[in-house]
Recover the amino acids of this structure.
DNA sequence: CCTACTGTTATACGCACGAATAATTTATGG
DNA sequence: CCATAAATTATTCGTGCGTATAACAGTAGG
């Protein structure tokens, strides 16, 4: 009986591969269905490696959560490119909303993962800390976008007011993202981007169309209705 | 060694007691930490009863979820009493917002339970069905409230428009409810009710104060702050 | 080419789980 | 007050889990 042949991987590659396999398992089978054996099978290795790289299953799962949140917030921020000579604030905010309410962020997998881990916040301060950090980053980023838009429109933009607006818009995004990802079928979720943009304009007191209400995006073609694919897309 | 003395309970009482013990366990230990032995210990009975009343642990958990959602939606609807001679629509909507963004609905336990089960939707159509029904009920109720308010203010209230408004406000409530319940400490969650009311006024295009922005509720005293304080903890 | 190192596999152990079955107690109706 | 059914307990069984340990194999330096 011969041993399995294997490949030595760099430390970070192996760790990353195990974390991604973990997220795949949690998304596919839930936390309770995620076992060390399944994770390592998904990653194509044997169970012993979990101990070798993370010490325990719990540690692996915590690291996988931090990895996921890092990806989510990074992608959310990237969608609105705030460069030195970036687009005007209104368009940045618009892209931010779009980025959160279309594929790939609007995904049943992602919201499922996200919710599963939220359920752990109460039982382990580590999860709470990761969540808090991600939320803070998201909120502050949004607050800066809001401030820029208000300035451009000559509206009052003192600190507390911007923060209140950011909290409300963030709530709106979160709620729509969740229900849209779960896709209960009560409405076509393709309406969400427009709906969020219009709602944001009203929340900020902007004139209708200030964020470019019509159509999905300046450069994208009109047919966005096509259902996004990616049934089992792993976080890359 | 003598046997444990026990009490015969009516079928529904026993079932309910087991479902509540299940929710307690899930909230306290997560789904993966919820075992038949723990559930029945919490309920003060022996593990055999799970099989007797629900057939299996999985069935028990599904029933517990349905029970939870039933409670949540019922309480949400009750908070705005829509009787024959109930209060004006604006106050009903206001109470609805308040009911969802103050204790006891704004609770870490509840959002933790809720998220845990959301994570199961993808793996079992039963959970998806329960969620869909609860969401539909919530949304339709909200839509009716919105319609009433728009009519009272002489604003356009055709069907599609009301629905869009309801979707947005529902998203807002969901998002604020979640982050507020998790209480990451980035802001005092006592500001949420006012914030939501103001945001809803803007979303619907109502004049400021139309929903009664000042103070928590007509009958409640001004000091609502006394509850959980948790002042803005400064991360870093 | 050898040797030391460590990433990786293979195997085993102890434990807690869900479920099934048997024994016993409570309630009910004539 | 007894007989009978149903509710509840007590115990057992097999399984899969997380983890620990030892054997093996790929890799690098001399």
């Amino acid at each position: 009986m011969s041993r399995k042949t294997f490949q030595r991987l760099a430390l970070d590659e192996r760790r990353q591969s195990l974390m991604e396999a973990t997220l795949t398992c949690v998304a596919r089978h839930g936390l309770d269905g995620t076992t060390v054996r399944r994770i390592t099978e998904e990653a194509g290795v044997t169970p012993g490696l979990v101990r070798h790289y993370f010490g325990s299953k719990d540690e692996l799962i915590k690291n996988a959560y931090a990895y996921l949140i890092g990806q989510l917030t990074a992608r959310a921020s990237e969608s609105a490119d705030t460069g030195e000579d970036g687009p005007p604030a209104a368009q940045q905010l618009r892209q931010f909303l779009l980025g959160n309410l279309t594929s790939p962020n609007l995904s049943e997998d992602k919201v499922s993962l996200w919710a599963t881990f939220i359920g752990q916040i109460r039982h382990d301060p580590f999860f709470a800390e990761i969540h808090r950090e991600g939320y803070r980053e998201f909120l502050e980023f949004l607050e800066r976008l809001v401030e820029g838009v208000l300035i451009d429109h000559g509206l009052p933009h003192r600190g507390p007011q911007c923060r209140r607006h950011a909290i409300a818009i963030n709530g709106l995004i979160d709620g729509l993202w969740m229900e849209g990802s779960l896709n209960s079928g009560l409405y076509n979720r393709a309406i969400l981007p427009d709906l969020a943009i219009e709602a944001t304009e009203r929340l900020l007191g902007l004139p209708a169309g200030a964020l470019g209400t019509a159509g999905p995006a300046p450069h994208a073609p009109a047919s966005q209705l096509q259902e996004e694919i990616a049934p089992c897309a792993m976080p890359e």
Summary: Chain A has two domains: 9-55, 68-204.
